[in-house]
Amino acid sequence: MSELRFVRLGFGEEAVEYQKAWQKQREVHAARFADEIPDTCLLLEHPPVYTAGRRTADSERPLDGTPVVDVDRGGKITWHGPGQLVGYPIMKLPRPVDVVAHVRRLEDALIRACAEFGVETSRVEGRSGVWVLGDPVEQRQALGGLSLDFDPRLQDEEFDPRLNGPEYAPSNAGQRREDRKLAAIGIRVAKGVTMHGFALNVNPDNTWFDRIVPCGIRDAGVARSRASSAGRSPSTRSCRSSRSTCGTYWRTRIRLPGSSRRPPPRKPPGMRAPGHGLAGRNPHTNIGRTLMGAEESKS
């Protein structure tokens, strides 16, 4: 089993500009491919920035022309900024390379990390990332006090929440009792080694997401762990420094040389599942260590 180390690049006043962190990823990726270093997870915070994956449509970008960094990961457009814990696990995957299995392991580790802080999260069928589940459609309160027979977002594929009032804003999805994404995942695998990773909303200003169509999803929103926690109130500091059983889970599940085994199947909750996915308690911890439980270093 390969060692997995953590490198803290910068948080708060030392938040790392996106382009600088991207270049650091390339350097670490090259070193990992050459077996000069072990698997490494970069932990950091970014100043406010929008980044767009390869599948991002023009209609999902900011309407006011705000600059967006186009990147070589999968997925669509998202936002990074203060209050969000970003992790870039740069790891050599076992062969045959199974990208979907890697994403599922990331999701499992994040779900278990979130559980440590009392945030109950799950997967949503057909959508990557980690979610706080909402209520079924039939149990939701009507928007603006009106009872509608249909949700226009489900009838119109081009529905733009930015042009239809704050009641449809992604940051207000909790008031609409909809599914909300708590952690986004977008990766790239080159030469069998991963790049990019996850962004966990600990305590950001989620109104930044209202200027885009986050991850290209028009009928759901975004969450933050502080608003979703039932017990301890996590911060980016606690999320990057606390220990978790997820570390052991992550290392044993992802580092099985020559194995393509996936995590055990989980009953998908579906887009409008009435129950919550995690049977245990808590979600959200030091996702750096939470994810891989190896020694940390600072660069």
Q: In a few lines, what is going on in this structure?
A:
This protein has 299 residues and is α/β, with parallel strands linked by helices. The protein contains seven helices and twelve strands.
| Portion in helices | 10-25%
| Annotated CATH homologous superfamily | Bira Bifunctional Protein, Domain 2
Number of strands: 12
CATH class: Alpha Beta
CA radius of gyration is 18 Å
CA distance, first residue to last residue: 24 Å
Question: How many individual domains?
Answer: 1
Derived structural class: alpha/beta
Strand content: 15-25%
Describe it for me?
The structure is a single chain. The protein has 7 helices and 12 strands. It starts with a strand and ends with a strand. The chain has helices spanning 18-33, 99-114, 152-155, 225-228, 236-241, 246-254, 287-292; strands at 4-10, 39-44, 49-52, 69-70, 77-80, 84-90, 122-124, 127-132, 180-190, 193-201, 221-222, 296-298. It has one domain: Bira Bifunctional Protein, Domain 2 (BirA Bifunctional Protein, domain 2). The protein is of the alpha/beta class. It is 20% helix and 21% strand. Helix 2 packs antiparallel against helix 6. Strand 9 and strand 10 form a beta hairpin. The strands form 2 sheets. Strands 1, 2, 6, 7, 8, 9, 10, 11 and 12 form a 9-stranded mixed β-sheet that branches. The chain is globular, with a radius of gyration of 18 Å.
